[in-house]
Amino acid sequence: MRAYGHLLPKRALLPAGALLLACAPACAQEAGQQGLAAQALAQQGLPARPAALALLPHDLSPWSMFMNADIVVKAVMVGLAFASLITWTIWLAKSLELLGAKRRAAQATRKLAQADSLAQAARHVAEGWTGHGPVAQLIETTRAEESRSHGLSADGVKERAAIALSRIEARAGRAMARGTGVLATIGATAPFVGLFGTVWGIMNAFIGISQAKTTNLAVVAPGIAEALLATGIGLVAAIPAVIIYNVFSRSIASYRALLSDASGEVLRHLSRDLERARSGLPAAPRAQAAE
C-alpha cells in the first residue's frame, strides 16, 4: 500500500476506511464473545466448537428425530410403520396358507392320477389330510353331477361337470388371493405418503429459517433430517410389500395350475366311467381288486 497508495484516488479510499471504522466495534465485540466462549470451554477441558455446530442437537438418532418431528410428520411415520407391520403379518399368514394348500393339492392330484375310477379316487383322496380342500370338492361335485344326470347324454354330463369345476377353481383362487390386494395398495401408496411427510417437514424447516432470520445450515439441518426420515420409512414399507406381492402372485398362479391339473384328472375319470357305463363294461380291474 505504501508503494501504490499514491496511484489510488483519495475518494475511493474514504468509503473503505469508513466501513472499517464502522465495523470495528461489532467485530471486536463478536471476537470478544468468541474468545470468552473459547476460554470457558478451555477451562472445562473441552475443545472449542464453531457457532454453527453449537446449534445442532446432540442426538440425531432415528428415535430422537422421530420424537422431535412435527406432529404431521410423526403421524406419517406411525402410519407407515403400521403399514409395514401389516405387510409382514400378511406375508407370514399367507405363506403358511399357501404352503399347506399347495402340498395338499399336489398330494391329492397324485392320488387322482393313481386311481382307476372316480369312486376309487374319492376314497383315496378322502384318506388323510387331503380329504379337506378344493380337490376333494372337485371330486364330490363331479360325482354329484354324474348321479343327478343319470341316463342323460355323456357330453352334457361332461360339459356341466366342467362348468362346475371351473367355478370351484375360481372360488379357490379368489380365496387364496384374499389379502394380497392390501400389499399392492401399500406398495403403491407408501412412497407418496412418505414424500408428503418429507414435503411437510421441509416446509416447516424453511419456516424456521424465516423466523430465525438466518441462513445458517445448522438451523435447518435437523428439520430436513426428520423430513427425510419419513421418506426412508415409506420406502422401507413399500419395497417389501411390492416384492411379497409379486412372490404371492406367482405362488397363487402355481396353485391354480395345480387345481387345473386336478380338474383334468377328475374329468378324465368321469369320461372313462361314462364310457364304461354306456358300453356295459364292468369297473376297472384294479378297482375291483382293491374293493
Descriptive report:
This protein is an all-alpha fold. It has 10 helices and no strands.
What is the strand and helix layout of this fold?
Elements: H1 10-43, H2 51-54, H3 62-68, H4 71-114, H5 118-126, H6 134-148, H7 154-177, H8 180-212, H9 217-279, H10 285-290
Helix pairs in contact: 3-9, 4-5, 4-8, 4-9, 5-6, 6-7, 6-9, 7-9, 8-9
Oligomer: single chain
Low-confidence stretches: 1-38, 46-56, 287-291
Percentage of residues assigned to helices: over 70%
First-last Cα distance: 121 Å
From N to C, what is the helix and strand string? HHHHHHHHHH
Biggest sheet features: none
The best one-word shape is rod-shaped
Structural class: mainly alpha
Provide key terms for this protein.
291 residues; mainly alpha
What's this, in brief?
The chain is mainly alpha-helical and 291 residues long.
